[in-house]
Predict the structure.
Amino acid sequence: MKVGITCYPTYGGSGAMATELGIALARRGHEIHFITYQQPFRLPSFLPGVYFHEVDVGRYPLFEYPPYDLALAVRMHEVVREHGLDLLHVHYAIPHATSAWIAREMLHETADDIAVVTTLHGTDITIVGQDHSFHTIIKFSIEKSDRISAVSRFLRDETIFTFGCAGCEVEVIHNFIDPAQYDRNRYEPVLRRQFPDRKILLHVSNFRAVKRVVDVVRIFAKVRASVPSVLVMVGDGPDRVEASDEAKQLGVDADVHFLGRIDDVAPLLSSGDLFLLPSNRESFGLSALEALACGVPVIGCDVGGLPEVVRNGETGVLLPPGDIDGLAAAATGILADPARWQAMSTLAAADARARFSEDAIVPQYEALYRKAVMDRPRPASARITVP
Ligand code: GMT
């Protein structure tokens, strides 16, 4: 098929997943067109079958808020017509699903058409969707999509609870990893060489409030009191300064390393002993899945979709958000028992491969695409190039 993909191209799980999906689909013979305001951060500069179309918003002085959603709709409309796309797959409802709907309405003026699939990732429903100013437009845009998917059962239920969405069928398609890339045995243990004789705790995120990065530091400080260890923080965002201040306050700053944003996290994860993700809520927790696939047990919170990813007590430990003592005790217990750590690490890598590998998940999107295209009246369905 010829598929247009729109996502947030900067750091974040939804953009990462959309990009990995596009790459995987291109490997399976589809033609993929990314339509975004910037090259997605995980997209290599050249890949056969993958094209990038930049959305230019312009900077007219009258616009205090440049109308990105309209510029995106116009670019979608152009790309669909120029390249004969079969389908637009938008990741994150707002504003992408709305722009796709506008583009489709414009296409109808020339008797053209396009199928639209919307994938919900989490904060588009759990935070943005509950803000009254966006509620109606998100509900409308979701309902106008031909097919909707959510990255966890939790998010599907939350979507139906929040929006009602009469008659909406929300299909659960979990996020996935490429098992060849997220493989502990594939990389030199770079961090282990840098920190010999220490346990390595890792956190990767966009450092937004929902991630509770200050808790990450507090948990680490308690672990470090009994286990020689370092904390490696990957990413950046609004709460980085607060986390760094907390490390100083607790006297552990010499052992907390902020590496900033890094595109390819697999080599770092492969050096890790534990991954900390004590978020208030994760609709899925892609970073946790990537850690598990690299054989790193996860210490996190038993909320949202994370319990669908981490097997509590087997591939990690999940406790209520804010239970710093409990999370630190769980981490210390695993690190102090090498046999238990090894069993968890082995099961984590195996379970991630068994349930969330690219080969198992990507065909679910292909099936969703087929249904979306077949749902629409001809001539759109007649344009399918790959059944
Ligand atoms: O976590 C964020 O703030 C970013 C957000 C995004 O759009 O990138 O992440 C959401 O989508 C990811 C990919 O599906 C999920 O793994 C994250 O759990 C989800 N974040 C939240 O639900 C907070």
